[in-house]
Amino acid sequence: MNGDHTLTVIRDRLVEVRDSLGEMHPGIPADEIIARARRHRTRRLLVTAGATGVIAVACAGAVAAAQLAGPASPAGTGTNQAGKVFTTAMVRQVARASRIALAHSGHAVISYRDTLGGRLNSSGTEDITFSGQNWNLILHFPPGQEGAEPFVINRVVNGQAYDYFIANHGLRWYHVTGPDAVSSLKIPDPRQLLHELAPAGRFMLVGHTVVGGVRLEQLRARDPRQLPVLNLPGIWPGGHLTALTVWVDGHGVVQKMNMTASQAIVVTSLGGVNPKKLPKNTKVIRLKAGRHRAPAIQEQIKTIHGHKERVITMWLATGSKLAGQVETSTLTVAFQDIGQPQVISAPAHAINVYGRG
Amino acid sequence: MRVWSVEQDQREFADFYAAAWNDCLRIVMVSVADRSLAEDLVAEAFTKAWTSWHKVRALTEPRAWIIRIALNAHVSWWRRHRREVALGSHDHTATISQDPALDDSLVAALRQLPVRQRQVIALRLLLDLDTATTAEMLGTSSSTVTTHLHRAIAALRREIPALDDQELTQ
Predict the structure, then answer these.
(1) Out of A8, A21, A71, whose CB is closest to B101?
(2) Which of A179, A265, A284, B106 is least surrounded by Cβ atoms within 10 Å, i.e. has the fewest?
(3) How far is CA B21 from CA A69, A216, A264, A331, B62, in A?
């Protein structure tokens, strides 16, 4: 009996066994298989990124970089991935790698520009350096804004507040010693912006750019309205994001963000109404103008759609006009010296003053 | 510019999963003689397939990739299982086939073969691939596939001498 005959016999018997097993249907749907793969990948990423310090950043970044490059993309041809949608895990990984990289120290320059009805409302630059609990904020003002100084500096070193601005002794450093000296400075934390790296934004890879020899992948949120609007310079809470673009380096760390927020607001001359009389955080939901009566604020409790709500009505002075305008804020954040130690020291010869920071 | 979307990939993968799952499961079942185990191995292989979908979708025969990965996973499973047994040898270790069709002497003999020979049998005889495609799927040469197949047949003949006496089924 030759081998070919035996081969045929074996094949026939095995096929017979196989076919006798009949038709079966998968107990696990394809969606669950995909979800399982994502869980596996996330777990791998977490394990990889869970190591300490530099190793964590490097590993997590490498994974993110691999994802940015895409599994099928030949080296150096990342642009053919343009249009690639970032999955939830990938967006979270970029956010995580960035948070780890910026956990202790860094430097960010925030530039903002705010227009109201198409006209420039305010603009400026905030240069923020942080290292642990120490902070340095340089506020640059364009000519004509915020008094005579082109810039002021707020600094926090070892729980002490310092200001560089014009006061009683002219332009120089002051050591502010009041109880609210540090908390009243309200130095914005640029790392808050990493909250914008949320899957709800549905990020998409749109291309890349090279800055200083470093290749940065460019991600754009397809659904920026789903992302939170943060209370940062030039961005008004209550509006919504209309655009968000993020540049990410090969380690999966955000290097630059560009966002635009917009909100429709009612602009009017209050004509004698003192808005400070309004309770804090009150939303004025009714404005009335052109009535022959004195300007005033009226508060009523009314039942609206079955719920009791507080209705604040502003009676404006006769002749006041109400106009709807759109306020648009554009903010650019450039992260620098990510993870690099920053020297923030107490200024010598600062003059002690008592007050708020 | 090449543009693709996750949604498109998911649809494509789901179609492949629906079309290939039954074939892959039955072949893996014949190879491991345990339905539950085969289902786990195939699920794991499909999970890996989604992770590497861009590579898998481009293959000549993606089902062969699933089977190969499932049988490789079986080796890992067996190693883990054997270690657990070493710690508690009173546990019942033999795989149990829940399907009478798997209680076949040939299936039992097949399980004794090295994993590479089982992969060749699965792809060449059960998935009916030619030698060249089998070699491509296993990442080896055609002559190596032929060698593995001959060794497997020889081993099965030694294990079940009656094979030589059987009539060819038509």
Answers:
(1) A21
(2) A179
(3) 30, 41, 54, 51, 11
Taking CB atoms and an 8 Å cutoff, what residues of chain A touch B163? 6, 9-10
The model's pLDDT over A71-124, given as tens digits with 9 standing for 90+, comes to 333 333 334 456 677 888 888 889 999 999 999 999 999 888 888 777 777 788
**A27 neighbourhood in chain B, CB within 8 Å:** 39
Confidence of residue A321 (pLDDT cuts 50, 70, 90): low
Report the gap between the CA of A93 and the closest CA in chain B (Å).
16
| Chain A contact probe: residue of B29, B67, B163, B170 with most A CBs at under 10 A | B163
Of B6, B17, B125, the CB nearest to A14: B125
> Tell me, what's the ipTM?
0.79
Chain A residues inside the 8 Å CB shell of B18: 26, 30
Chain A interface test: which of B50, B106, B119, B156 (most A C-beta within 10 Å) = B50
**Per-residue pLDDT tens digits for B90-125:** 333 344 445 666 767 888 888 888 888 988 999 999
